[in-house]
Specification:
Structural class of chain A: alpha/beta
Oligomer: homodimer
Strand order of the largest sheet of chain A: 1-2-10-15-14-11-12
Distance between the termini of chain A: 20 Å
Number of strands of chain A: 15
Shape of chain A: globular
Largest interface: A-B, 61 and 61 residues
Largest sheet of chain A: 7 strands, mixed
Radius of gyration of chain A: 18 Å
Helix content of chain A: 25-40%
Strand content of chain A: 15-25%
Chain lengths: ~350, ~350
């Protein structure tokens, strides 16, 4: 049963568990620092399909099936799947789950989708709306690049603040179980827009949303940021991560060296030439569903705040002179059911 | 508190109420048969903005504010807003609620979004995840036409099976209250794809999803289709509506002349030259938030099944030779809290 705490946070009193999780990534991600954590590294950027969009759908379906396998349940056990992605009309998800025969709720949260889908999936299980749910998302470098920026063949120059869209997918299966990782609280974010209009500086556009949601969570719960082994943002990259920390400092919240960013964890920034870091729905999804949830299972992480951020603009809205609205949702993951 | 009935349906035992609803539409919709039901008919297709996309965002914000007014609550009372639309990266919603300072969950369900958002909004209230929620969506003829088909200036020919995208938005506010309309059950749909690839025949692509979800609801609850004053599909249009009825007949479910379709209700098909009828997220949204909920309030409708349908393709997926996956979600609306 859920309990609302403060204005923004929902405590999930039955503490739903992540009973299965899986990550599927591309070659470049498989050459990065998290290589050993991923369930599957696919060398072929087409995943055996004819187009990159079809490849992304297949990758999302693969992550879902692997997560089911690891949870040791059949797909019929899933009451509802929450999924979304970055592509126009979310075709990564729509086609990825076309044959699944499972009730489907489509989401659009841009790169915040892993947190949004997981929050909804956990909320449904906690409240008895569903017994078992799935949350899944993806991104693909080649589909995102040609949709949001330039044809790949063009070889456009990238400024230092630019990020590299991750080819990856992550899926979590949520239910009630004796073992964790447990989901203790969720905080849905509001849309922030501080007037950034540079599509090559998404980290700066998203940092205020991440700070805002974290401040709301800390205010609602009275939690001490030092109580968490890791406060991990979605894909702010280096530029956005620095801004995030300084925005918190302005509000007198000091993070004791426990802040990490999925966009900086997934690549070796210098060796892999990714400028400010990784991005895309698949960035926070594949990092969550590998090193983070894996760390909680192995005991190296006990208390984690996962804050995935999304930039809600489109190429057209930017062409029309609009700034970039952004959003961040938060999940408190814990190795324990109760207490800190 | 929710109770799961059968495989697909959730009974909302606390029967949340629609405490406010509002519809905003364009000039053409304001000249149709439902003219007197709409809260606001805007003659200017730009809604005072510089682009049609900004107009769509404004329209969605207007519907939300009108619904709040009619519910007689302030926006601070809203715990979570569920919103989405048809535009790439759902910019109608992202920009429409940018300044609202309300937690936001973005959805993509194409033209099923009104049912998807309302189902989630009602589920959150029933289960105590939220006290008060909002569900809102929109579409705009000019934004959809140039994104999905041709530039308006091109003046492309339209076959008889084509539908006309509605310029409209609908918003519902959900909470617990003594008076209805009440939301009794919800059924989330699965993605169907029977191989239709003609983007000018979306009704045919979506009809199987609508039939599938209705059959699941009837199977789960044991309800008799004759017990409803109206079984209303989202925007199948004339071609899709006929297919829907015949698909049900094949499964031995006969509808006793209580089937209506929002796409056929909103326009006078012949006088307004809209071929197979209206379509777009705003079609079922503006019809629900005018004649349907209005009819329940006035007592002319007592039991209604609202089944909004969505086609989950994109222009790119169709160019890549893909067929059109579709989905439908169902809401049982009632003037009474219990019994039939």
């Amino acid at each position: 049963m859920p309990t609302r705490i403060g204005r923004y946070t929902i405590r999930l009193d039955s503490t739903p568990s992540v009973i299965g999780f899986a990550s599927v990534v591309g070659k470049k991600e498989g050459e990065g620092p998290l290589a050993d954590w991923f369930d599957l590294v696919e060398e072929d950027s087409l995943f055996g399909e004819k187009t990159w969009e079809k490849a992304e759908s297949r990758m999302q379906a693969m992550a879902f099936h692997l997560a089911l396998q690891k949870a040791n349940i059949s797909r019929d056990a899933i009451d509802l799947i929450f999924a979304g992605d970055l592509l126009n009309q979310c075709i990564g998800s729509g086609y990825g789950h076309r044959g699944s025969q499972i009730p489907f709720a489509g989401l659009f949260g841009a790169c915040s989708t892993m947190a949004e889908s997981l929050a909804l999936a956990a909320a449904f299980v906690d409240s008895g709306l569903a017994a078992t749910t799935a949350a899944v998302t993806s991104s693909h470098f080649c589909t995102a690049e040609r949709q949001f920026r330039y044809p790949l063949e063009y070889g456009g120059q990238r400024p230092p603040s630019a990020q590299w869209t991750v080819t990856g997918s992550g899926c979590t299966i949520i239910s009630h179980a004796e073992a964790g990782p447990f989901i203790r609280e969720i905080t849905f974010g509001m849309i922030n827009d501080l007037g950034i209009s540079d599509i090559n500086n998404m980290g700066a556009a998203m940092a205020p949303a991440a700070a805002d949601t974290l401040l709301n969570y800390l205010h609602d719960t009275g939690a001490n940021p030092a109580a968490f082994d890791m406060i991990v943002t979605g894909d702010l990259g280096q530029v956005g991560a620095e801004l995030f920390v300084s925005l918190l400092k302005k509000e007198n919240v000091l993070l004791p060296d426990n802040h990490r960013d999925c966009g900086m964890m997934i690549f070796d920034q210098l060796a892999q030439d990714v400028h400010s870091g990784g991005s895309g729905c698949g960035c926070s999804a594949s990092v969550l569903c590998s090193a983070i949830l894996g760390g909680v299972v192995k005991g190296s992480l006990k208390e984690v705040l996962f804050i995935a951020t999304g930039a809600l603009m489109s190429p057209l809205s930017v062409q029309q002179g609009e700034t970039i609205p952004s959003i961040a949702h938060l999940i408190h993951l814990s190795s324990k059911r109760e207490g800190q």
